[in-house]
């Protein structure tokens, strides 16, 4: 049910570098896990809606500015002229 | 065979009149700041931080939804759009999504506009979402860089996205529609569209049975028409040569004025949308909707109708004015100073408009009451008002006034000052003026009678005196004396 | 010299305020003890000796100056350990992962700030399963934590360090986090008290997210009284967390009293190892003797709870962990010359196996076409569980059962079978899915290994929970310290 190709694709979606061995192992384990989750199929529940917490607009944050004192990105190692350095786009 | 052209739009508009960002209390205004100086743990995606939804963002987005005829649902939800990119601090974007029930702030709207005929475009949805950060490359090109520079100052800035159905059939229609949207947004005061990057538009185009092509990276609204024209030609050419048009995303290259295949292969991304657990469902109750309706400013169409009815302006002139909120605000300020709407409108539409640079990248200095222009011109409503008045009073003729305009725009001097300056030989000899007044009073008896009741008629008398004296009389003194004489002789 | 380390928080505060001993004396003993025994237990990732002693001296100065108790703090001088997925400003916070190896947060979690404001002294950061994903604290970059009752056995997880440190008297209190049982499980395995508050009772700002619709920060300590003290410090609405309840926070009191209607969830007892069921039935008897109306009851939808939990938890985790790309925080690896996708994939290969497993499974259940079948369905199951438990809580004030279906087991015993490991969460996930508060209190021993009694109450009914828990605690009197 869960093929190695699917695991490869999921690895790509999640940006996880997987070895061939890893792919095989995960394929097996995920298949088992998802097999268990399929238990959810055994109950219908069409009339039930998920419950979410609700708030009124007035309970949300007011539009005030409060700048962060200090440098939020102080710990970042790779900086250049204030920018954060990242890998290149192709 | 007529191939049906279908164009749809995706417009992103920053909510620039908010103080803070969408999910944190950093400044919403990120422009021209030192990189990464306008960030906090939340918008830079530090571990352990949670989004804090800005209530005013919902109001501004709600106003837009209503203005575009959308339904506003009872409850809205924010979703996560999961994908990786260097400008995304969390590697997901907080946005809205309508697959499992309506959760975005507006759906199923409609906006009418006039191209060659009366048309309308359906608004599929309006949603609120956050802007990502900005990527900068060394030497400004992606190709030669070993690394990318990331600035999160813009990350978390609030956006509304407007998605239309593919109801447009020509680039011109799109241009007209975008002008109208701009005017509406300006009138709502939710976005200062003159700020760089405040409004962006992606398009999708298909011809006949051909696949849909998306075009991104169009720098400004002005470029949209060009990009569409190019792309339609490209697709038509391909069709003619029976080359298949693939469904793809292309980028607009502003320098070379062409669309090209997206550099990064935008593979079928699976965004794995799900509702964000940290942001509660927001209930939009009747009180909220009533507040929106109450706070709804006058929209362009309404304003146009008012201009036609109240100021008796023509359809065309009214349209030109409301197309640009700055102009219509300027107009009304001027009319408030000197009530001569037709003349003032004419001045603006025929003469002033030439001086206003449409592609305005200048820094905004605010006088948001519409008294000044933001393009750095020194002209204000009071100048045009006085200009119109002087012409009405026959103190100067229209040609002279036109000449004055050039000067005023550069120096900001009042027209009356210019009149003084250029009028070298002035007759201020009281007796001479009185003589002229006597002459005019004798020949214009009915006007004199009128003038006793109606101050407008005084202008007429003054005008006759100016004519008589070939404009050499000092109008202020003359006016004084006329008034005195009217009182004396009544 | 009195052994100050084994004192409860309540006793420490009293002693310091009364001048029986100084905070510095106490903290010094604590630090000494950690130094002496933590090699065996491995509860701590970092110990902040200098910071702790400095704070102790400040407290002592306040006491000497005769300052008001309120200003010295309700938790004055108490040694607290913080699970290393809760942000502490200036103190490295790693989630036991290479992906946050060097991360020093520039801000304190709200719960940390509140503890500090109340005079508590943070002695260090505690070991956990990487990113809180696990039930045994074996999935940590810093090695397994061991159960003080039997080194070589697991302490439970994911807040294993938090539980072991308290059980071993390395600190009086600790904070853990509970997503599917991660506070209660180790509390049960280590014979201490651990609480998962109602969802929204305590701020999650600064708690590094694993599954944000399920988790809460939870206090852990030796007595229910200590838990009450912490809850009075850390509960409440927080402007930095919009999922906290917008209401006046009650002050919790310790008032063990009878007359509580107790329901025993039979599905939970029946699924447990025999020593455990026996212990829980005894607990039930004890409640009866204490003037409580006890009755066995049933919750049919329990059978779907675990599937619902893991679907939701893994889905949310796959998204919550996306931000770890080593660009702003992580470990030392320059991005120069890497193409960005390759860089991301390479750095993220440093997640441990269990984390990767959950990210992949989580992406799977959220992926195109599967959302309705898994995530949405799981949320519906959740709603159903909520309905059922609300109904039960009309008849009963509290629901009880074992915290864990198994006794603590040996390190490495279940580590190769993920699904088997997941199964032991069966008793605890209910409270996370329904949002209700749940506490684990020591109930006894089986084969010389700790057994915990779990008590659950209605949403925001922590006071009733404390009533029942303290009642049981005094009567059951399961107070022992592991020999270390």
Would you kindly provide a brief summary of this structure?
The complex is a heterotrimer of chains A (90), B (490) and C (484). Chain A has 90 residues and is α+β, with helices and mostly antiparallel strands.
- Average pLDDT of chain B, rounded to a whole number, is 89
Shape of chain C: globular
The quaternary organization reads as heterotrimer
The low-confidence runs of chain B, each spanning 5 or more residues with pLDDT under 50, are 358-371
Number of domains of chain C: 1
For the record, the CATH class of chain C is Alpha Beta
Q: Indicate the structural class of chain B.
A: alpha+beta
How would you explain this protein's 3D organization?
The complex is a heterotrimer of chains A (90), B (490) and C (484). Chain A is built from two helices and three strands; from the N terminus they run ααβββ. Chain A is of the alpha+beta class. Chain A has a two-stranded antiparallel sheet with strand order 2-3. Chain A is flat. The model of chain A has no long low-confidence stretch (mean pLDDT 93). Chain B is elongated and about 90 Å long. Chain B has three domains: 5-290, no CATH class; 298-422, no CATH class; 430-488, Arc Repressor Mutant, subunit A, CATH 1.10.10. Chain B has 490 residues and is an alpha+beta fold. Chain C has one domain: Alpha-Beta Complex (Amidase signature (AS) enzymes), CATH 3.90.1300. The chains are: A alpha+beta (90), B alpha+beta (490), C alpha/beta (484). Chains A and C meet through helix 1, helix 2 and strand 3 of A and helix 11, helix 12, helix 13, helix 14 and helix 15 of C. Strand 1 (54-56) of chain A pairs parallel with strand 15 (281-283) of chain B, so a sheet runs across the interface.
């Amino acid at each position: 049910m869960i093929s190695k190709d699917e695991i490869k694709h999921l690895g790509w979606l999640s940006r996880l570098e997987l070895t061939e061995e890893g792919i095989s192992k995960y394929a097996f384990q995920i298949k088992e896990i998802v097999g268990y989750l399929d238990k959810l199929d055994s109950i219908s529940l069409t009339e039930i809606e998920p419950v979410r917490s609700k708030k009124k607009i007035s309970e949300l944050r007011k539009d005030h500015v409060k700048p962060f004192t200090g440098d939020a990105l102080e710990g970042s190692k790779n900086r250049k002229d204030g920018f954060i350095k990242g890998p290149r786009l192709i | 065979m007529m191939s049906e052209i279908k164009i749809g739009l995706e417009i992103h508009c920053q909510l620039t009149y908010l103080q803070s960002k969408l999910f944190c209390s950093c400044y919403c205004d990120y422009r021209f700041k030192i990189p990464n100086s306008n960030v906090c743990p939340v918008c830079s995606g530090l571990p352990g931080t949670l989004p804090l939804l800005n209530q005013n963002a919902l109001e501004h987005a709600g106003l837009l939804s209503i203005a575009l005829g959308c339904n506003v649902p009872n409850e809205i939800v924010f979703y996560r759009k999961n994908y990786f990119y260097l400008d995304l601090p969390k590697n997901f974007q907080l946005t809205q999504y309508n697959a499992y029930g309506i959760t975005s702030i507006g759906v199923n709207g409609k906006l009418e506009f006039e191209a060659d005929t009366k048309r309308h475009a359906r608004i599929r949805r309006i949603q609120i979402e956050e802007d990502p950060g900005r990527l900068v490359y060394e030497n400004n090109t992606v190709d030669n860089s070993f690394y990318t520079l990331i600035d999160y100052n813009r990350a978390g800035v609030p956006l509304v996205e407007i998605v239309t159905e593919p109801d447009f059939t020509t680039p011109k229609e799109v241009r007209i529609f975008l002008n109208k949207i701009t005017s509406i947004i300006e009138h709502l005061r939710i976005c200062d569209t003159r700020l760089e990057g405040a409004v962006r538009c992606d398009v999708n185009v298909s011809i006949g049975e051909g696949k849909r092509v998306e075009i991104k990276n169009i720098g400004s609204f002005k470029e949209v028409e060009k990009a569409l024209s190019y792309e339609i030609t490209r697709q038509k050419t391909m069709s003619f040569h029976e080359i298949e048009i693939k469904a793809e995303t292309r980028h607009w290259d502003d320098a070379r004025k062409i669309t090209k295949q997206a550099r990064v292969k935008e593979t079928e991304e699976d965004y794995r949308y799900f509702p964000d657990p940290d942001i509660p469902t927001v209930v939009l109750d009747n009180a909220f909707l009533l507040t929106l309706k109450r706070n709804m400013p006058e929209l362009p169409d309404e304003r146009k109708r008012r201009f036609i009815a109240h100021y008796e302006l023509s359809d065309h002139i009214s349209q030109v004015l409301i197309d640009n909120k700055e102009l219509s605000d300027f107009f009304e300020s001027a009319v408030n100073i000197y009530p001569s709407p037709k003349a003032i409108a004419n001045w603006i539409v025929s003469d002033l408009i030439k001086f206003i640079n449409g592609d305005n990248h200048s820094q905004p200095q605010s006088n948001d009451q519409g008294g000044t222009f933001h393009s750095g011109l020194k002209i204000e409503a009071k100048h045009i008002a006085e200009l119109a008045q002087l012409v009405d009073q026959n103190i100067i003729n229209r040609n002279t006034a036109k000449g004055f305009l050039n000067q005023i725009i550069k120096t900001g001097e009042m027209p009356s000052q210019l009149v003084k300056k250029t009028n070298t030989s002035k007759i201020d000899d009281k007796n001479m003026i009185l003589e002229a007044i006597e002459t005019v009073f004798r020949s214009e008896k009915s006007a004199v009678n009128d003038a006793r009741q109606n101050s407008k008629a005084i202008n007429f008398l003054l005008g006759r005196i100016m004519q008589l004296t070939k404009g050499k009389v000092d109008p202020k003194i003359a006016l004084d004396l006329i008034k005195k004489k009217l009182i004396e002789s009544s | 010299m009195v052994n100050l380390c084994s004192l409860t928080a309540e006793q420490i505060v009293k002693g310091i305020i009364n001048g029986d001993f100084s905070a510095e004396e106490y903290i010094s003993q604590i630090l000494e003890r950690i130094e002496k025994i933590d090699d065996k237990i491995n509860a701590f990732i970092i110990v902040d000796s200098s910071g702790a002693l400095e704070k102790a001296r400040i407290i002592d100065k306040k006491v000497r100056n005769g300052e008001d108790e309120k200003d010295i703090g309700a938790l004055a001088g108490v040694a607290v350990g913080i699970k290393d997925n809760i942000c502490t400003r200036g103190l490295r916070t790693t989630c036991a992962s290479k992906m946050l190896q060097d991360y020093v947060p520039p801000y304190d979690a709200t719960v940390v700030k509140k503890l500090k404001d109340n005079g508590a002294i943070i002695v260090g950061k505690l070991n956990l399963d990487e990113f809180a994903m696990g039930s045994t604290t074996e999935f940590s970059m810093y090695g397994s934590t061991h159960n003080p009752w039997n080194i070589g056995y697991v302490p439970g997880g994911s807040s294993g360090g938090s539980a072991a440190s308290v059980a071993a008297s390395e600190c009086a209190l600790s904070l853990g986090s509970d997503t599917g049982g991660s506070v209660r499980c180790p509390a049960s395995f280590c014979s201490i008290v651990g609480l998962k508050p109602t969802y929204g009772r305590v701020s999650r700002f600064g708690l590094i997210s694993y599954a944000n619709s399920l988790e809460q920060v939870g206090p852990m300590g030796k007595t229910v009284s200590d838990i009450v003290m912490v809850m009075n410090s850390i509960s409440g609405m927080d402007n930095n967390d919009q999922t906290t309840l917008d209401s006046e926070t009650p002050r919790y009191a310790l008032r063990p009293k009878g007359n509580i209607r107790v329901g025993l969830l039979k599905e939970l007892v029946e699924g447990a190892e025999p020593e455990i069921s026996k212990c829980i039935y005894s607990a039930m008897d004890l409640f009866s003797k204490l003037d409580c109306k006890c009755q066995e009851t049933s919750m049919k939808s329990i059978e779907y709870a675990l599937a619902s939990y893991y679907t939701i938890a893994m889905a949310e985790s796959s998204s919550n962990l996306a931000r770890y790309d080593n660009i702003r925080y992580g470990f030392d690896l320059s991005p120069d010359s890497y193409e960005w996708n390759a860089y991301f994939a390479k750095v993220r290969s440093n997640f441990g196996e269990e984390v990767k497993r959950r990210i992949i499974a989580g992406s799977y259940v959220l992926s195109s076409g599967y959302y309705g079948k898994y995530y949405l369905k799981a949320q519906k199951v959740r709603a159903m569980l909520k309905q059922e438990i609300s109904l039960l809580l009309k008849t009963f004030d509290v629901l009880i059962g074992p915290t864990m279906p198994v006794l603590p087991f040996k390190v490495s015993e279940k580590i190769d079978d993920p699904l088997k490991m997941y199964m032991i969460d069966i008793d605890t996930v209910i409270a996370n899915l329904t949002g209700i508060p749940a506490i684990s209190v020591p109930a006894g021993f089986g084969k010389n290994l700790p057994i915990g009694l779990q008590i659950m109450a209605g949403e925001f009914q922590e006071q009733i929970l404390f009533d029942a828990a303290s009642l049981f605690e005094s009567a059951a009197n399961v107070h022992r310290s592991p020999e270390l």
